[in-house]
Request: fold
Amino acid sequence: MKIKPPRPHAVPRQPNLYSTYSWHPNMADDKILRVSKSSLSTFQFCEQQYFIKYVLGVKEPENDAMVRGTNVHDAYEYILAEKLDIHQAHALRDNQGFQAVDDYFQSLIPKSQVKKGWEDKVAKYTGKDYELDEDIHLSKLMKAEANRFMKSDPTWFLPSANERTIDAVVELDINGKKVLVHLTGIVDRLFQDGDGNVHVHELKTGKWKDTTTKYEGMAKEMAFYVYLMRKSDDPEFGDMRVSHWGWDHTAGHLTDTKYEGGIYRFVEPVRVKVVSEMLTDLKALVSAHLRYEDNFNGKSFAVKDSGAERFICEPWCAVKGFCPKYGRATMPYEMKQKAEGN
Ligand code: SF4
Reply:
């Protein structure tokens, strides 16, 4: 694994202000804490993992799920931005019906991987074949989109924002202390209706599970976007009224056998209670940084009890080799005391 210590980034529209994941209270006043949707999600999962990945900068090697996710995101963004002709789809719907619309949507799937150029942000074909079933995920997604198109007003079918970065600087009150925080995130898609209501929608390439943990995790991710848009000083988002959120899982539901069935798509009105719970988590993250003194030993970040190892560390953590807490549950008592510095 590589270690790339975080560096300060300029905060958009805030001259002379920089944000960093490794912020601590002794930094100069022009440096503030940076929080992204994924850094907050990691903190909610395990504070120790957050410290290792974001504060120390340990980079997980890319795995198949990450590569598949990026390739599907890039291709879908490209289809919506560059390939889909709404007038053509509309004519097919009026004259020939669902099968013709679905065939058209399927024909838009790039035959090889596409990648965004770093310079001009224009997606280009790479000529590289899909190797991780990305085309199957895209085909299922396009069928869901063809179905959505059959029921939509074509004027509002395309997203009003497609993989859009949003930034906000907020002042949070942490036990009476005011702390400036830079929130940043890339929303997958925003959709609008004729009344100005906005729907924020997330794309995942994994499977959906009907568990409270999974639902809460997704809903809190969406709550982060809702809060970000409300607080952003970007004129595009100032008066935006976000009424709904939702998500797709292109591998379908956990009960589906491999690639049978459609994608899992979920939509619900914005839940204020979840936004408030997300804010509580955000404040806990800021509190952990207020205790951090740049000593790189992670003491400032509380760690889940060792009972979590079997269910959290072992199956889900790629940075356990860097974690001083991993493996303590099974360590002989004397060694454990020594390892913990007692
Ligand atoms: S090994 Fe466990 S406690 Fe350590 S960072 Fe990973 S998930 Fe967190």
In short: DSSP finds ten helices and twelve strands in the chain. The chain has a mean pLDDT of 89. The longest helix spans residues 64-83. The longest strand covers residues 177-192.
